[in-house]
Structure formats: structure tokens, C-alpha cells
Amino acid sequence: MPEFPILEYENLNSVIYGKLCDALIQGQFRPGDRLKIRDLAEQFGTSVTPIRDAILRLANDEAIIFRSPRDIRIPGMNESRYKEIRAIRLRLEGLAAETAAQLATSADIAALEGILRENEQAIANGDRLKGTELNQAFHFMLPKIAGLPLLNGILRRLWLQMGPHISDAYIQGGRTMIDHHYPVIDALKRHDSAAASMAIVDDILLGGKPILERLERENERQLRQG
């Protein structure tokens, strides 16, 4: 019956799209990287069709620039776009932290502490990819703890655009990338919603400072070149 091949095809497309989303969010690509459909198909062990379909969806998400099948790139970001995304993240991730503080269990807190311990080791090892992956895992634990799946979906779209830039600045950022995760955990332990929200806001503002500084330098360079 025709329903089964169609269902299988649609499921494969969703799986490949999800894997590429994770790769972007976790910083496996960096701004300016060129993507090759055949290379990705080989990497994921599939045909080019689901890869192409996933890339078109990601282009619609504004996470990839698709100029032609031979010119697919991870986009850069200007200063104003970064600040817009940051402003949205401040509100939404602040809400996630605030709500998580009301609901966090000892198991939730232990999971966050485990992520943070691993992230400490990744920074000590200079492991950019592992550090970026763990940083993303920490942030996305908050809407999960808060029981806000719709918010999680909205944040994923923002992180599709931010993941490559966070990764690009992760080693340069050093301890600023994780230092403010500790006050988040402390606030969750006390079930202090206001403190949890303030801590994640500090983390986004201060942890994102290396990214903003890089974008500001690039903007100044472009202005000088006229």
C-alpha cells in the first residue's frame, strides 16, 4: 500500500532535518562554512534527496543560506540581528529559568550539575565542540524542567542561528561561557524564580560578550572599507 513508503520517506526527512538542526545548534558548523549535499549524504548514510529537503527547510528557518545547490553556506550575522535574537532570548530563557525554579527536582539539579562538570572539563581541554554541545544542553534543560515544550521549540529556531556563532567564540570566551551557570543552579536549589531568571539573563549577556565584540569589530571593518 502506498501509505507506508510515503510515511517512511517523511519520517526519514524529519530525522535528517533533526540531525542537521542538532549539528547547527551544537556548533558543529561555523559561520561561513560551505555545506556540500553529497558530503552530508555520505556522512548521514542516506541519499541526497532528504539532505536537500532538510537544507531547504533550514534555509526557510534562516539558519542556512541556499544560493544554489553548489553554494550553500552557514550565514554570518550582523550586530543588529544578534541584538534582536539576544533580546528575545533574554525574555524567553528568563521565563524558562523562572518556571524551572518552581518545579526543579533534586534529579533535575543533579543533571544540570553533571552537565556543568563535563563542561568544565571540556573548557580545560580546549574542546570547542564538546563545550558548545554541553552549553546548549544546559540551556535546553531549563524549558524541559519547566515543562514548556512549545517554548523549547521556539528557542530551537533561535539557536539554529546562534549555535555556529556561540561555537565560534566558545574558546575565546573561556570561563564567561559557564561561570553564570552556577548561580542558575543555586537559584533552582532555593526555588528562587527571580534569581534564576536574573542568572540566566547575566549568562546570556556576559557569555555572549565575545560574540558581540567580534560582530562589532567586523562592522567597524566593513565601515572602514566603505
UniProtKB/TrEMBL annotation:
Pfam families: FCD (PF07729), GntR (PF00392). The keyword rRNA-binding does not apply. Residues 10-77 form the HTH gntR-type domain. Keywords: DNA-binding, Transcription, Transcription regulation. It comes from the Bacteria. Transmembrane segments: none annotated. Gene3D superfamilies: GntR ligand-binding domain-like, Winged helix-like DNA-binding domain superfamily/Winged helix DNA-binding domain. SMART domains: FCD, HTH_GNTR. InterPro entries: GntR_C (IPR011711), TF_FadR/GntR_C (IPR008920), Tscrpt_reg_HTH_GntR (IPR000524), WH-like_DNA-bd_sf (IPR036388), WH_DNA-bd_sf (IPR036390). PANTHER family: HTH-TYPE TRANSCRIPTIONAL REGULATOR MCBR, TRANSCRIPTIONAL REGULATOR, GNTR FAMILY. This is GntR family transcriptional regulator. It comes from Rhizobium nepotum 39/7.
